[in-house]
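Example record

The entry below shows one chain as it appears in the dataset: sequence first, then structure tokens.
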Amino acid sequence: MATHKKPATWLDLAAGPRWDREHFDLKLHPVTAGCGECYVLTLSGRMVFSGDGRLTVFRTREAAARFLGLLEIEVPPTAEHRGTLDSQPGRQQCLGLCGSALCACSLEAEFTPAATGDERYVRSRRSSRLNRSAIA
């Protein structure tokens, strides 16, 4: 029987360097998506997911650097390519840069930010209410 590792979350990423410095092995991996090359993070071999269970994908290396900077974590060197993302909507949470802030984006052929400029709130794809998925 195969052992399945629990996916890493943003909380694991934020707390990892403080709680488990010996086993904190962060890697940034390129992946192929419908929009081209994107990036995902692994923490000690586990893919990093958002709290709602979606894979966290960064549209650019700079977006990943901004996200990690908010957590005061140094950007790791680029590791091996992790393959192609399936294009099923709702399974990934893509984050891109909107100015100097992070915002939700699409994994489609064109980068389409959900927020522009200094907007801090973006519309949820699941509902019409506003949420704080844009990280400043």
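Notes for this example: Residues 8-98 form one domain. Residues 3 and 46 are 13 Å apart (CA to CA).
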